[in-house]
Amino acid sequence: MKYISFLFFACLVSFQTFGQNQPPEYFLDGKTVVLVSSAPSARPVMDWKEIAKNLHEGLVEAGGDPIAYYELEEVVLSEEIQAAYAKNFQQRMVRNIAIITRKPDGEFVLNIMEFTGNRNMINAGDHWSLRSGTIEELDERLRAIGENVRSHNLLVLDVPSFLPPLVGGGTTVGDASNTTVSARFIPRNPLNLDVFKLGIPLSGASGEEALLTQYRYDLLGKSSEQVLAAQRAEKASLEGILSEYYPYETVFLTEVRSDQALIKDKIQFVLMRVEGREADLKESMGLSTEGLVQPERIVVKYYIKFLVRNELYIGPNWDADPDGRIALSNFLKNLQIGG
């Protein structure tokens, strides 16, 4: 896996607003998967499925073939989950990824890009984009675009298709080991933390796989200055917690580095951070969700990825928390537990 700074690819991801110009040819000749991210604070309240239902006909009228809709937050729940989705899309011969983002201020942003066929799903760079203040306006603009295009997509779905999320046991990651996503999460601590360095990505510096995350409602459109300020604050915060609870050597990761390069530099472990609904996270890691008081609450969970064996250590105790600082402190404390 390659590591790339949040700031670097945030600057690379730019938007082309074409008004009512013709969408890209690949959108007009191939299957599209649509990912939706909707800010819960936006008004009027509208969940992601409602957004999909309101825009499906417009996407079809604009020449697309949207075969399935998913919530973006489900797909980017972790790198392993995203890899499973990517493999599924490849098997279904998907050509395009469309992302509909509803920002906290209510603005809608549609981005259409070509599916890469790998776990990254998309490339950094310019994508075809539309922005509208309301869902009605976006729908109208899509329908207007359709009046001037010739689509090769013929047998399209009349209604949006919502498939169950690829989360939990039985979800197969597209790699040679053919293991399930949940099976790769190990509920204990890794060995030899005192021998090898622990790499710590800053502000989502989790590699090209994290490009999709930039279209989340809470991240889309952040300026480079905002990102840089967040990075500085994050590093200072992490350093304080690490100095108190982690006695071994650490390295902050902000540049593009392959697994091989990291291992060569004695960085065999990487601290990973995921954020999502607590029930979704536990299920994706093969853990029971029974007894959760607030299964829908958004929490942060840390775990350690062992690069040499591609193993994921989540620790002996569930330690996720809505506060990222508390979640990290809990996780580092649990690293001291034997077994």
Please, could you describe this protein's structure?
With 339 residues, this protein is of the alpha/beta class. The protein has two domains: 7-146, Rossmann fold; 182-334, no CATH class. The chain is built from nine helices and twelve strands. The chain has helices at 6-12, 48-61, 72-75, 79-91, 135-146, 224-245, 259-264, 278-284, 324-334, and strands at residues 14-17, 31-38, 65-71, 94-102, 108-114, 126-132, 185-186, 197-201, 250-253, 267-277, 298-306, 311-313. Strands 1-6-5-4-2-3 form a six-stranded mixed β-sheet. It has a six-stranded mixed β-sheet with strand order 7-12-11-10-8-9. Strand 2, helix 2 and strand 3 form a beta-alpha-beta unit. Helix 6 (224-245) runs parallel beside helix 9. It is elongated. Mean pLDDT is 83; it is low at 1-20 and 168-179.
Helix-strand layout with pairing:
Blueprint: H1 6-12, E1 14-17, E2 31-38, H2 48-61, E3 65-71, H3 72-75, H4 79-91, E4 94-102, E5 108-114, E6 126-132, H5 135-146, E7 185-186, E8 197-201, H6 224-245, E9 250-253, H7 259-264, E10 267-277, H8 278-284, E11 298-306, E12 311-313, H9 324-334
Parallel strand pairs: 1-6, 2-3, 2-4, 7-12, 8-9, 8-10
Antiparallel strand pairs: 4-5, 5-6, 10-11, 11-12
